[in-house]
Amino acid sequence: MDIKTLKNFITIAENGSICKAAKELHMSQPPLSKQIKLLEDELNVQLFDRSTRGVELTNEGRLLYTHATSLVAYNDLIMRELMDAGSETIRLGMITSSVQYSLNLIKNFYEEKPVYFEITEKNSFELLNLLENNIIDLAFIRTPFDMNKPLDYIKLTNDHLVAVGRPDFFQREDHTITLPELAELPLITVRRWKKYIDMNMSTFRETIHYKFICDDNRTSLLMAMNGMGVSILPDSIVTEDLPQELIRKKWIEGGTFKTSIYVVYNPSRTFNKYTDEFLRFLLDKNIESDES
């Protein structure tokens, strides 16, 4: 019994047909049938019930399938980690709202160590799953997200939500806006911030007037720049080079409009030396206190 045979067995089980599995594996049916018969003889059990409609796992087959999928996954992990050990690639995940902050860190590290970064942009849920399955090494994720998975979570920085819009939306010239003033404006926000904003506003008995709700902070910012309303965004997304005559940023007075960016990784994973150095670089240079 070898890994290749187990992979072929899994393919048959998932297709429910030796013929379909043979096509997927790019091989003819007779050698595949013979391979499974030899596996059954070796284990001294019947793995499939065969009929004109296809094949179905027996009780023994279901037991082998459970263990085989784990063995194949573990084998793939070993092979990947052995290849990664000598690799110069850092597999990094990030959500779009952390890109501005993350790229500054990557740039600083790259200037010292010009290694290869493979970057995956997904939502928080998808990135956490990729970390659990060792598909990526590290991920930059912004709160709120699920911290109950068996991963390590290191806070890198605190960030504040700010109000951003055309100058004519704001009554005062200073850099702040109160919750009552905010409640009177046509607001734009990203779906992940809505519950967070509602919670803060309800504490002060203010009702929000949402005009647009979208899924991406960049879309929200572009809407604000086009005069479609006032967007509530993380401060790190609003770059300093935005023209003041086009857009203004206001700090929100009252409530707790704060979010944090974390680097998350799987503590059971063995990193190559460059990923390990990048993680140490993050821990040594970029952790900020909760008061920041």
TrEMBL record:
HTH lysR-type domain location: 1-58
Keyword DNA-binding: yes
Pfam families xref list: HTH_1, LysR_substrate
Coiled coil: none
Molecular function GO terms recorded: DNA-binding transcription factor activity; transcription cis-regulatory region binding
Keywords: DNA-binding, Transcription, Transcription regulation
InterPro entries: LysR_HTH_N (IPR000847), LysR_subst-bd (IPR005119), WH-like_DNA-bd_sf (IPR036388), WH_DNA-bd_sf (IPR036390)
CDD domains cross-referenced by the UniProt entry: PBP2_LTTR_substrate
Sequence similarity: Belongs to the LysR transcriptional regulatory family.
PANTHER family: HTH-TYPE TRANSCRIPTIONAL REGULATOR (PTHR30126), HTH-TYPE TRANSCRIPTIONAL REGULATOR CITR (PTHR30126:SF64)
This protein's name: LysR family transcriptional regulator
